[in-house]
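Revision sheet: structure tokens.
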Amino acid sequence: QDPPSHVATSFAAGPVRMATAARGVTIAAGAAGAGCILAFGATKLLSSPPEDKPCPTERARRDVFDGAAKKWDETVRFDELISGIGRQRRRLVQRAKGDVLEVAVGSGRNFSYYNSAKVTSLTAVDFSRTMLEVAHAKRKDLLPIELRLKLASTQKMDFEDCSFDTIVDTFGICSFELPVEALKEMRRVLKEDGQILLLEHGASTWEFVQGFLNGSVHRHVGKYGCYPNRDIEKLVQEAGLHILVNERKHFGTTYYLVCTRNPPVDDE
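Predicted:
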């Protein structure tokens, strides 16, 4: 089936989803409560790395998102409300300015948070055609900001170097097939003085919670299309990004990061 005319096609595969984050927060909260009761030895046992076995392919995970797209907002709305994810989205996205790229845009849950007094244009990419169709229906939430939707992979985008003032990703790193490569590509298209705004879920600072995430990773990837146990901070640093703001919530599983291409230069 041909894509709608409003979706520019540069097919590949790569990003994704945000609100599995709320699911991850729920998992973390339940696991942490149980962890306070269990003995230290059990905690050590459960914090072991996940079993080394194949996870679903990227094509299979894209199919998960395609199938869930039409009811995605309905599915995650309550979880995001009770976990405070909506407030975190608003707080992060209102930092955006200039020409903005949002990767793994999904159903466009961030559109209503962009400040038209600060944002000139928004280019939004995702590897799910169906998610982009849902996002297109929310164009009015962005007015008068110019919107361009593009079917593309975050790990291989066709934008020129240093194209954007701000890059936004909310709950996409958990689903990138090659997360470091995707982050490096985000860094490539960011202007020298630009910023990358990340709201992610991943590895916990609590051993028991991390053990629970490790133990459930294959089931979670199969059902929601994302890896809930990735060390987001480490991946960001491996990509060569500098972290200016680093906040963790929900037993360390929710990451709020503001990053730049390079460390700040001293004025001295």
